[in-house]
Amino acid sequence: MHKIEVDAEMDLLEENKRLAEENRKILKEKGVIAINVMGAIGSGKTLLIEKTVEALKDFKVGAILGDVIAKDDYERVARYGVKAMPLNTGKECHLDAHLVHHALEDFDLDGIDVLFIENVGNLICPVDFDLGENYRVVMVSVTEGDDVVGKHPEIFRLADVIIINKVELAEAVEANVDKMVEDARRLNPKAKIIKMDLKKGIGFDEWMEWLTCVLQSQER
Amino acid sequence: MSFAQAIFDTVMKIATEKNAKKINSVHVIIGNLLMLNPEQLKFCFNVITKGTIAEGAKLEVEISNAKIKCTVCGKEFDEYVGICDECGGFLSVEGGKEMILKRLEMEV
Question: Given B28, B35, B104, which is nearest A6 (Cβ)?
Fold first, then answer.
């Protein structure tokens, strides 16, 4: 036996990048806009998808609901009669392009205009995994504390839309919504920032306006 | 864990090609903007390699820093703060997201 050294110079994230590009190609061929919905546990991701499914009349929605285990989110969305699929990671704290690739193999994309991919509730791990989406939406709520945006710069830096939810509860939990908005704007001056309270219907119109605009203008 | 798995899978692929009997060390370069803690990565790598020819291999982690600078005045920053504290310009970020298997040492 003797020792050898191998200069590998290999990109270890290449596999995820490759599969993400493949997903992007599949989605584009089918004319589907994919939106990666990220955010903390309980921030309102599933409710946003539910309300959007209900409100979006001119476009057909599909949804892939990621979770570590359980199908609760899937069941919540599926009862609206849209094409939906649960995607359990088993142990992992995020979705990756490989998992989504398998999901897309089984998902009937015909007729779908917009596919929501709800990531696992987490503001850290999902950041580094491109799924092949067109847009990234990051949702947080004031109940997570008004420092939550500033503490997770990467996920907000790379978002297209930043939603700060449950603003009606801000006073009760002593959260400063303006600080959250300022942090978001500082980290990502290009992102669309929406102050929302989904249960009270605040900010939802603004979200629908953005979404409709994207769906109408996108070349598909 | 999935990053450790990616390292392991690639290392094993190379080891198989070279008919390696044992892996001694693995050197990786990790961008500082990846959501990765080197100590946790080493721990996960140790767990994954148990019972394989890579068991006991040393994982050396080198950090590569993103180039973060103001798009207006050019001031450089160590971390992403969003807006330049000198002139208020937007910051640009280059790199910091890579993960490269640089080299490995093995016995054949």
Answer: B104
